[in-house]
Write a structure and sequence with these properties.
Layout (H helix, E strand, L loop, with lengths): L20 E5 L2 E5 L1 H4 L17 E4 L2 E4 L5 E3 L3 H6 L16 H13 L3
Antiparallel strand pairs: 1-2, 3-4, 4-5
């Protein structure tokens, strides 16, 4: 999954904790690369209880990693009604050209010409 801001792709991690940050934006899980984390306005969703942006989205729920608050994720239809463009509410985080890169990698690994 690429960084939602700049499109950089995560490389194989070195030992230890990943420098990439997870977050939730428009009810979808996103990754933020270390370079984009330096930006002050990441435009990530925040917890309604404590205001933290340390959220994770899984199985239709959004959970705050700071206070433990859990809520249901809003459906994409509600987000469109709230005025967000449909491209912003897309659950797909696939970057342009990713399928071609995956196909090329599979061809290299499987020895296809």
């Amino acid at each position: 999954m690429p960084c939602y801001r700049c499109g950089a792709r995560q490389t194989d991690p070195v030992r230890g904790a990943s420098p990439w940050k997870r977050g939730v934006r428009h009810e979808a899980q996103v990754l933020v690369c270390p370079d984009c984390q330096r930006a002050h306005d990441l435009d990530l969703d925040t917890c309604a209880s404590c205001g933290s942006s340390a959220l994770i989205c899984r199985l239709g729920e959004v959970e705050c990693r700071s206070c433990g608050s859990v809520r249901q994720a809003r459906p994409a239809d509600d987000l469109v009604a709230a005025g967000l463009p449909s491209s912003e509410t897309s659950r797909s985080t696939e970057a342009p050209g990713l399928s071609a890169e995956v196909e090329a990698a599979l061809n290299r690994v499987l020895g296809r010409s």
